[in-house]
Amino acid sequence: MKCPHLCILISLILYMAAPALAQTAEGDEMRSTSCLDCHDSDSIKPELRSIPSEWRKSRHYQNNISCHDCHGGDPKDAAMAMSPERGFAGRPQYDQVPDFCGRCHIGILKNYLESGHGKALKTAGTGPNCVTCHGSHDIQKADVSIINEKRCSQCHTYDRAKAMRQALSVTEKKIKDVEDGLRQLKSAGVYTENEDKALFNTQAAFRTLFHSVDVSLIKGRTDEFVTKLEEIEAREKEIFHELGFRRNFSAFLMMVFLGMAVVLMLLSKIGK
Questions:
Q1: DSSP letter (8 states) at residue 251
Q2: How far is CA 182 from CA 177, 189, 226, in A?
Q3: Taking the CB of the first residue and of the last residue of the chain, which one, N or C, has fewer CB atoms within 10 A?
Q4: How many CB atoms lie within 10 A of CB 141?
């Protein structure tokens, strides 16, 4: 006869392990697909062989965005991996790249299309698209460092881009300060989901603003973003203050208990 307590214990362990097992399975599936197997092999053209290694360094990889999420197709079936019937879209034409990326980055696409960059691409077909600035597979987290003389001067002088970078830098620094604070709180075991969501929403709106390429608009909304970030920062300071109070109070209680222990020990000796 099976022990009911053992069965309950095993069930509890499996229940607790299920999310981790699911994440591992999802990660393994993302990291081993027919797309990657082919592009990692010696049979592929040399210029296409570097794609997996570039992708593994990217922001997409860090967020579990794999080949088929962008290019479609069947990642589990090598024979159907590039089948249009399975939704394979392949590599977009140069002027189709913004719409291709904009399927996920909707707000950014809207600002880009209304910007000088978007209008240049639409009218001349040679304006910068997403890949021009961000790369195709080695995409990194966007920040103001992407605006630099080497990149921007490929198409025009750096003066206007430099002014935009300076306008963005104030908000960017504040974002980094807030991120540092949240990292410290998490390392202390503090639950920060609400603050994380607030920062994510603020960052998303801020990154979207990048793509307007409008210095006046960016300068005009700097105070708005800084105010939102300062609100998150104020909450961080409250939590830090509360943590400090708890630590001090714990230390005080420890001293009280130690003092009581010493007193009781002395009283016991006197009683003898």
A1: H
A2: 9, 11, 17
A3: N
A4: 12
Q: How many other C-beta atoms can be found within 10 angstroms of the C-beta atom of residue 173?
A: 13
Scanning the structure block, which residue is given the tokens 């307590």?
Answer: 5
Q: Vertex 136, ends 158 and 85: CA angle to 5°?
A: 145
H/E segment holding residue 55: helix 51-55
Phi and psi angles of residue 201, each rounded to the nearest 5 degrees, phi first? -65, -40
Q: State the Rg of the chain over Cα.
A: 27
Q: Can you tell me the distance from the alpha carbon of 252 to that of 258, in angstroms, rounded to the nearest whole number?
A: 10
Contact at 8 Å (CB) between 52 and 15? no
Tokens of residue 143, six digits: 């920040």
Residues 6+ apart with CB under 8 A from 102: 108, 109, 112
Q: Give the separation between CA 57 and CA 51, rounded to whole angstroms.
A: 10
In whole angstroms, what separates CA 22 from the centre of its chain?
A: 21
Read off the pLDDT of residues 154-167 as tens digits, 9 standing for 90 and up.
888 999 899 999 98
Q: Does residue 107 sit in helix, strand or coil?
A: helix
User: For 23-65, how does the pLDDT look when each residue is reduced to its tens digit (9 = 90+)?
Assistant: 444 445 556 789 999 999 988 898 899 999 999 999 999 999 9
